[in-house]
Amino acid sequence: MSSVHNKLSIFALGGVGEIGKNMYVLQYEDDIIVIDCGSKFPDEDLPGIDLIVPDITYLLENRDKVRALILTHGHEDHIGGLPYIYKQLRMPIYGTKLTLGLVEGKLREANLLKEAELTVITPESDIQLGTVSVSFFKTNHSIPDCLGIVFQTNEGTVVHTGDFKFDLTPVSEEAADLHRMAEIGKNGVLALLSESTNAERVGFTPSERKVGVHLEEIMRKARQKVFIATFASNVHRLQQVIDAADSMNRKVALIGRSMVNVVTIAKELGYLQAREEIFIEPGDVHKYPADRVAVLCTGSQGEPMAALSRLARNNHRQVEVLRGDTVVISATPIPGNERNLSRTVDDLFKLGANVIYGPGSATGVHVSGHGSQEELKLMLHLMRPKYFIPIHGEYRMLHQHRLLAEAVGVDQDHIFIVENGDVVAFQNGEARLAGKVPSGRTLVDGLGIGDIGNIVLRDRRSLSQDGILIVIITINKSHGTILSGPDMVSRGFVYIRESEGLLEQANEVVVASIAKFQEDNMKQWRLLKQLVKENLGKFLYERTKRRPMILPIIVEV
Amino acid sequence: MSSVHNKLSIFALGGVGEIGKNMYVLQYEDDIIVIDCGSKFPDEDLPGIDLIVPDITYLLENRDKVRALILTHGHEDHIGGLPYIYKQLRMPIYGTKLTLGLVEGKLREANLLKEAELTVITPESDIQLGTVSVSFFKTNHSIPDCLGIVFQTNEGTVVHTGDFKFDLTPVSEEAADLHRMAEIGKNGVLALLSESTNAERVGFTPSERKVGVHLEEIMRKARQKVFIATFASNVHRLQQVIDAADSMNRKVALIGRSMVNVVTIAKELGYLQAREEIFIEPGDVHKYPADRVAVLCTGSQGEPMAALSRLARNNHRQVEVLRGDTVVISATPIPGNERNLSRTVDDLFKLGANVIYGPGSATGVHVSGHGSQEELKLMLHLMRPKYFIPIHGEYRMLHQHRLLAEAVGVDQDHIFIVENGDVVAFQNGEARLAGKVPSGRTLVDGLGIGDIGNIVLRDRRSLSQDGILIVIITINKSHGTILSGPDMVSRGFVYIRESEGLLEQANEVVVASIAKFQEDNMKQWRLLKQLVKENLGKFLYERTKRRPMILPIIVEV
What we know:
The structure is a homodimer.
Chain A: E1 8-14, E2 23-28, E3 31-35, E4 51-54, H1 57-61, E5 66-70, H2 76-79, H3 82-89, E6 93-95, H4 97-109, E7 118-120, E8 126-129, E9 132-139, E10 146-153, E11 156-160, H5 178-186, E12 189-195, H6 209-221, E13 226-229, H7 235-247, E14 251-255, H8 257-268, E15 279-280, E16 293-297, H9 307-312, E17 326-329, H10 338-350, E18 354-356, H11 360-363, H12 373-383, E19 385-391, H13 395-407, E20 422-427, E21 430-436, E22 441-445, E23 448-449, H14 454-466, E24 468-475, E25 482-491, H15 500-519, H16 525-544, E26 549-556
Parallel strand pairs in A: 3-5, 5-6, 6-7, 11-12, 12-19, 13-16, 13-17, 14-15, 14-16, 17-18, 24-26
Antiparallel strand pairs in A: 1-2, 1-20, 2-3, 4-22, 8-9, 9-10, 10-11, 20-21, 22-23, 24-25
Helix pairs in contact in A: 5-12, 6-7, 12-13, 15-16
Binding site for Zn(2+) 1 (chains A, B): 73, 75, 77, 141, 163, 392
Keywords (chains A, B): Calcium, Cytoplasm, Endonuclease, Exonuclease, Hydrolase, Metal-binding, Nuclease, RNA-binding, rRNA processing, Zinc
Subunit structure (chains A, B): Homodimer, may be a subunit of the RNA degradosome.
């Protein structure tokens, strides 16, 4: 695989046709700029896999051209792949102060921080990467310090929005920079890449500030402890919880590793304002009157090992949820997490807590960090792009975003819904699809990165369905006679004590297969294995309607 | 385990603390009446399991007292366990015409129909089961022919609502019988068991009739084929689709086994009115102009093998979804099905279809079959029960239903939130919790009912995470010397060709363990197995951060 040969190429290595593992690439001649380096959690069809990161084959094969990785913000689906990818690519990294603060922690843990070349950028930065001039614009999102990116090339200007909403009354930060965006649009945008997460949602996403009002109200009314579970990275949300607690004269305890981690970094870097004396240790919660305490914790997705789930199972060493306490789920479950979160809510109700949960639109304790349809149209209006590539979303979201772009006047033929790896090439102001670069998912399992392939996964899935039955036949190497066996061992198939009759008969099936093998004067052990597999598989399916993996092993002595 | 010894006892064997496998029991002295016999699909924490049905240990131990099974309606979570349970219990079965029509199909498939004693009931029926008089009242739901049940005992009257909503403008059936319910309430209700599915939802569930208006509008506007995916059992919905198609001069094709099955039964029994000539075979769809066809299909939950998913993957033998076709998802995903359904919607958009999906409140093409908070309060008001047991729901739903009951004036101490198996006993008009009967889930896997236990499940889960590594050591039976091995075989752990170095070193770890075993003059092979497991486990975790199941097998020759 060589490099693509267009003047200007744009493609995704992750993030289109999916939510997660965002990685986009802009290549102008011999200059490659990578945008974001995210990770994604596996579905249940990838048993045992810890994490998914983008396949960076293309970047490795063109590593001499990679000028930089630019990070739009510090969410896991934009920086979570960094330790794995950096180990292989060692590219210079650009990001805002908070983003790099979070990245540093990741690289330190992976023992990669010392060698990393990190450059802090601001919305005002202007950098030159090879022949490409790169500048930025401020956006709003559910983590501070987010950027959109403007690439100026000799072919024209390309804009990447990052994740965004338009928060016109933001919490402790500036609103998205409408004037700068207007200016960019005025100067002409060849192509816009804009995020599509909420493209299915009508209207305008409410301001983060709305949440604060509800949180304060809840803390005012509560007569005992108030627990608030939210994403640790939502620093504005944390700020509002702390402010509400402070105004209601409650101390704040932090529970959950990432909560402590983010609060520490955000305070250090000036993104979180709080009097030091407001914080108390979880171990000291019991020392305060219940109506003088608020607890900020992780686990808003019902993750079984996170703080809130442990609290709900009454399984936390230091803090207890008691009858009459209030628990606020300040988040919406990500698809796939609904059942875990429901279980956590059930457990909290069983403890007698008053739980505030459900869609943010009903409870007021959560708003999305992503712009809804009106905001996506606003971005399209401001940028007035000639070409539009919806990114950051599953297909139906990209599709809805396309409809929005058409509605605001983008030429239907100028909209490209791409898959990961599809190259959009630009020449003389015209765009076309120009082939594919390698793309896909790299699976992380323990220390292994990309070493788990389809065969291993297929085996894991198969093992999980009906288990395994191992048949061991020992033969004499020189005479080819059967010395021992068949011995059978099963795991995950049937409970032995209850099914001895079955396994005895299975044994007879194997014995008969061996007899047939010898009778027919067959020689290759491969054929015996085949015979055992077939006969035993058939017998077991008839008797149980199950299909365990059958693994005949021939031991030569 | 003997029988419970209260005058009147009520308990659930399935359906509280969960959605699914409904089964409730009323016992008056020596007369046991069972209500419903549902099944439930397993979560991902039950790998390989096909179905879950209630544990009926109590009923088997008291089978001489079981007078009848009464079915409230024909949904799977109320009748799906029947073939498995009937095989063991052989009890007389009561249900309405449509419910028994669906039951007959199930029993026929399981070769149990001939011996089954089925009695058709109507809302006007009045039956005597032992000392208990049983009557009924008509309700509305997302399947026709639903009943609530009234049990008259010498201790007082007990009412079980079944699943219900109040549809005041129902489609081709009567509205729920408010007058009869009012009369029951007036005569005094000792205990009400009422369903809680939508107890978290404010307001009043819209009438089924609202859907028809939208369906007709969609068929009017569509210039090509219209596909409607919905639950086959929702006969009123099917009726509305057929009516809309008929009025728009479209023929109707049915795709999906259960769709064909339900339409056949419902027509036969008079629950579905349609001119015979409106139906066409799927294979004939292509013979009609695209704007003269509607397709009713299964798969509204995105089930990978159902009709809609096959159509979306362009994988149906007879019918194709073409660019410009309209697809209506006339259902809401059940929690856990969201991702599958999203994938199906993505695939349909990729085919160029216009897909109408999302919450029924937004699209108008779906309404729930369960009453919302105002309807649950209405039922509580009508029945004016002395005691209230919320049923049919996960804990938070039961909890919200309790709050509704308190709000309409039921005494807080007279509300029992129970778990499956908890017995509520009544004597002299007073209720109390009175111990537990055996309850739990019986797992169906292939032909096995209840033979899969925790060990097998734990092994399946473990195998699915990091696979298995089998280590075979062959020893001489008489001398105790090692003849061969260690031989190692792995499945689902690592891909062999890429990890030979690792497995070679693992082999050395085993060899060293054997040497240590012999050096220390240990004799029991059990100890060698233990040693190999420990040393190999430690080595592999250090090297890979994975924990495959390690299975040492010693073959004696």
